[in-house]
Amino acid sequence: MIIAVDGPTASGKGTIARGLGKHYGLPVLDTGLLYRAVGLQARKMGLDPDDPVEAARATGFPDALLAEPELRSVACGALASRVSVHKRVRAALLERQRQFAAQPGGAILDGRDIGTVIVPDADVKLFVTASLDARAARRHAESTSRGESLTLEHVIDDLARRDERDRNRAEAPLVQAADAELIDNTDMSAAQALEAAIAIVDARMARHAAKGA
Ligand code: DC
C-alpha cells in the first residue's frame, strides 16, 4: 500500500505520515528533508539557491546531512522552498523518492507533489491543511522549543511567503490531487487528525478490496 500525504508547510502532514507509518507498519519518507538538505548543502558550498545550475550542484549532498538537526530550522525551510522551484533540483530528487515508494509492502511519503507527480497511482492520497494562523502558532512553538528565538509575526510572514512560492511555482506546484481526501485540522488535535486519516485509509482500502474481489 502506498500512501501519499501532501500539504503546505506546518500543516501537520509529517505527524500524520509518521502516525500512519506506525499504525500500518510502513516506512515513511519526509521528502521535505531532501529539499532542506539541498538548501543547506547549497549554503555550505556557497552556492546561490536561486540559480538553477548552482542549486542543482547541491543535490549531491552526503546522506549524513539528512541527520543534521539544523535541517528542521525555519531558515532551512525557507532555503528548501527556494531551491525546490528549480526543475533540475526536482528531477535529481525524483528517482530517490520513487524508489522509496516502490519498496515491497509499500510506503508512506509526505511532501507537496507526492500524489500529483511522484506517485500519481498511490493507493491513498491525503491533502492535509490548516489555517495560516494555526500552522504559524504550531511552527512558532516548535521553533521556540528548539531554541530559535523568532517572533510569531516572523513565522507568519515566512509561512505566507513559502505558501505563495510553493503554490505558484511552474514545476510541480502544491495543489490538491483530484482524487485526494482533504483533512483540514485547524480545529483538531494531532490525535484527532491521525484518527481521521486512519478512517480515510481504511475506507479506501476496503473499497479497493471490494473492487478486486
Ligand atoms: O515540508 P517541508 O516544510 O519540510 O518542505 C520544505 C520545502 O521543500 C517546501 O517549502 C517546498 C519544498 N518541498 C517540495 O517542493 N516538494 C516536496 N515534495 C517537499 C518539499
Report on this structure:
- By secondary structure, this protein is an alpha/beta fold.
- The protein has one domain (2-212): P-loop containing nucleotide triphosphate hydrolases (Rossmann fold, 3-Layer(aba) Sandwich), CATH 3.40.50.300.
- The protein contains nine helices and five strands; from the N terminus they run βαβααααβαβααβα.
- The chain has helices spanning 13-24, 31-45, 52-57, 74-83, 87-101, 114-118, 132-145, 152-168, 190-212; strands spanning 2-6, 28-30, 107-111, 124-129, 181-184.
- The protein has a five-stranded parallel beta sheet with strand order 2-3-1-4-5, sandwiched between helices.
- The longest helix is centred in the last third of the chain and has 23 residues, at 190-212.
- The protein is globular and about 55 Å long.
- The two termini are 17 Å apart.
- The mean pLDDT is 95.
- Bound molecules: 2'-deoxycytidine-5'-monophosphate (DC).
- 2'-deoxycytidine-5'-monophosphate binds at residues 9, 31-32, 35-36, 77, 80-81, 84, 111-113, 162, 166.
